[in-house]
């Protein structure tokens, strides 16, 4: 029966992925949000002969300090006159050979396969929670139909790989805590766990932190286990952390990595407020996405009787993760309407919610379970629709802009700027207002650059004087809501 349910879940996963991919334009211009930047990073890494991770931005003789670059914090930082993305270098390294072999479609392979593997690994982890198979199956159904899994499986994003790694690590350590394997097998699984953790800390440091919390939840089974495996805990923290600091220093000349460069700007008050933002106010709020999450207060109330259960200790680890991540890393953002940074813990929270409903709210079990699936499922549906619409619109806009994109381009908007860049080696400069445009036009002339186009997002036209535009530029065309101008000396004949 369980195998039959799992087959249906896998089939649903395949069908949903194929359905979404059939609507999304299969071009770089159809990529959205962080996927665009990661694609740039991977393409430029390949173009460099896989020797360095900086991205092509523009002519540094004209703008040596990247004051007019479209890539800027928190997405990118200038290090030694080169622009580096804040996104994980190891994701670029892993995907570079897939992109070389399979072309553009190579970006879908790892997210999709990782998402698929995570379903199998999660199922095995859930079976460790003992005789709760009905809840386990419902949790898997939720993971596929109501979480961000489907979106991230068709998105050039490391989230599904991180889920696979953290679930795989948790499964290994659960098995090691139950069995007494021979020395060779124990060493083998120790090395696998270290590899998983090292990949995690390089991909998403917060998920590495979650893996350590899960390991602590296993150790808290009893005092003897905690004492005996405290050395292993130190090993799991020390080895991946050493790799993380060394590689960051090697690549970025900053052992902490680029993602944490702006963290120190937040005060303690800011960090505490971020917890409330994550849980209540922001677009990935549990109050709206996971409304029945708040029913689990009954679990906390009965923690003494439940602490012996593995699933409850995992639940507590998730709660600690929920509270600490906004405090430790308050700059984490994202335009998802689903809980992006809490994605790995969603299945465990759902499992706890379902257990709470069955144990304490049995009278309303059907109603609350339906509420959980319907409301959370609506978030997935809306996210998919927005993703598809935005992807189609960006691709359509690029098709209209493409004939006017030359070697040198000026843009008024960073969002359309990345579209014009579109993973090509083009000089691209950000001039958001008339003062920056006037100054930059002089710099271009000083460097004998006379052929260029200016792309102005129509709502931002108010930032420019019509007299200035007509004096130095000539209106060429309009692509959706983008106005296109060219220099009067431009030899391009569009």
Keywords:
single chain, 494 residues, alpha/beta, five-stranded mixed beta sheet, two-stranded antiparallel ribbon
Structure description:
The protein has 494 residues and is α/β, with parallel strands linked by helices. It has 2 domains: 2-30 and 88-360, no CATH class; 400-487. It has helices at residues 2-23, 34-47, 89-102, 106-127, 133-145, 149-153, 159-178, 183-203, 205-219, 223-228, 230-252, 268-281, 286-289, 297-301, 303-306, 310-328, 346-360, 365-401, 414-421, 434-446, 466-472, and strands at 76-79, 82-85, 408-411, 427-430, 453-457, 473-479, 482-487. A hairpin with a 2-residue loop joins β1 and β2 (82-85). The longest helix is centred in the last third of the chain and has 37 residues, at 365-401. The chain starts with a helix and ends in a 7-residue tail after the last strand.
């Amino acid at each position: 029966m369980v195998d039959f349910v799992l087959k249906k879940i896998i089939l649903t996963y395949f069908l949903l992925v194929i359905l979404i991919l059939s609507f999304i334009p299969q071009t770089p211009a159809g990529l959205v949000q962080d996927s665009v930047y990661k694609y740039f990073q991977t393409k430029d890494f390949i173009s460099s002969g896989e020797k360095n991770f900086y991205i092509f931005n523009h002519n540094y003789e004209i703008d040596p300090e990247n004051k007019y670059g479209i890539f800027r914090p928190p997405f990118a930082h200038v290090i030694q006159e080169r622009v580096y993305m804040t996104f994980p270098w190891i994701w670029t390294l892993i995907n570079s050979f897939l992109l070389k072999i399979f072309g553009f479609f190579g970006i879908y392979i790892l997210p999709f396969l990782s998402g698929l593997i995570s379903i199998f690994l999660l199922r095995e982890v859930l079976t460790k929670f003992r005789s709760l198979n009905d809840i386990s199956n419902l949790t898997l159904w939720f993971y596929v139909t109501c979480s961000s899994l489907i979106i991230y499986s068709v998105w050039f994003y490391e989230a599904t790989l991180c889920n696979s790694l953290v679930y795989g690590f948790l499964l290994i350590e659960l098995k090691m805590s139950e069995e007494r394997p021979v020395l060779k097998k124990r060493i083998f699984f120790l090395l696998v766990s270290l590899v998983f953790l090292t990949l995690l800390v390089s991909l998403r440091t917060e998920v590495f932190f979650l893996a350590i919390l899960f390991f602590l939840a296993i150790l808290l089974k009893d005092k003897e286990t905690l004492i005996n495996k405290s050395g292993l805990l130190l090993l799991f923290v020390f080895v991946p952390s050493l790799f993380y600091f060394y590689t960051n220093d090697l690549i970025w000349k900053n052992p902490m990595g680029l993602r944490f460069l702006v963290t120190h700007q937040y005060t303690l008050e800011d960090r505490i407020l971020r917890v409330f933002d994550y849980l209540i106010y922001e677009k990935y709020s549990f109050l709206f996405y996971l409304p029945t999450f708040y029913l689990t207060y009954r679990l906390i109330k009965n923690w003494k009787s439940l602490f012996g259960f593995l699933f409850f200790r995992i639940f507590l680890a998730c709660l600690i993760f929920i509270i600490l991540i906004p405090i430790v890393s308050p700059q984490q953002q994202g335009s998802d309407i689903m809980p992006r940074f809490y994605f790995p813990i969603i299945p465990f929270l759902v499992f706890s919610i379902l257990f709470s409903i069955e144990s304490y709210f049995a009278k309303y079990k059907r109603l609350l379970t339906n509420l959980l699936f319907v409301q959370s499922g609506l978030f997935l549906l809306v996210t998919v629709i927005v993703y598809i619409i935005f992807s189609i619109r960006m691709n359509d806009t690029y098709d209209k802009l493409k004939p006017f994109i030359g070697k040198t381009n000026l843009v008024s908007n960073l969002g359309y700027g990345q579209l014009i860049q579109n993973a090509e080696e083009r000089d691209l400069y950000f001039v958001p207002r008339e003062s920056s445009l006037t100054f930059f036009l002089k710099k271009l002339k000083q460097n004998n650059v006379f052929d260029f186009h200016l792309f102005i997002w129509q709502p931002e036209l108010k930032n420019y004087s019509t007299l200035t535009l007509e004096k130095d530029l000539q209106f060429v065309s309009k692509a959706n809501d983008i106005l296109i101008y060219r220099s009067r000396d431009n030899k391009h004949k569009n």
